[in-house]
Amino acid sequence: MIEFIAGLVAILVLSAGLLQIVSLTRAQADVMTEARKLAGEKSLLDVATLEPAQFIRAMEKGPDDKKYTRDDTFTLADAGTFRSSVINRTVENDADWTYITQSGDEHFTQMRNTANPSLVFGMVQGESHETVDLISAVQSLIYRAPSIRVEGEVWMTRTGDIY
Fold first, then answer.
1. Is the dihedral of CA 156, 157, 161, 163 positive or negative?
2. Which parts of the chain fold into alpha helices (H)?
3. How far is CA 157 from CA 49, 56, 83, 110, 134, in A?
4. Kindly report the CA angle at 87 between 119 and 101, in degrees rounded to 5?
5. Do residues 132 and 24 touch, judged by C-beta distance below 8 A?
6. Mean pLDDT in consecutive groups of 10 residues from the start of the chain, 163 residues
7. Three-state DSSP class for residue 103
8. If you count DSSP H runs as helices and E runs as strands, how many of each does the chain have, helices first?
């Protein structure tokens, strides 16, 4: 009899956990779809939006042992380091910048001369979130919180001025 009750409890926990995983997965898909939609709408605008992206110098994996998730620790870099270690190395010596300037493509020159080169990249951001209520069985047996907030953030490049 005890084995039967333990089996029923195990089935209840597994079923509740599975239902909760399905609802969280659906929420994650909805949130990312909405964030992509918002970023896509911004990317098609004719007017550039000023959304500077952060420069990441290094990343350390968090407790989930997966790269680039919300629990990771990022060491931020700065625009000056990006300019000196990436942009300034696109030419062999400073005199070569005159050739780039004369080529008619102003993007490299703008990146070199602006305080925040990420603005020249034309990055746009889309964000969304959704709160998922937890099933009472999950609250009682697995995770003691009334809900979980699912968040999504997407960065895209502008395409409005390409066409």
1. negative
2. 2-43, 79-82, 97-102, 107-113, 118-121, 136-141
3. 11, 17, 20, 17, 36
4. 85
5. yes
6. 90 90 96 95 78 77 85 81 81 83 78 78 89 90 89 86 56
7. coil
8. 6, 4
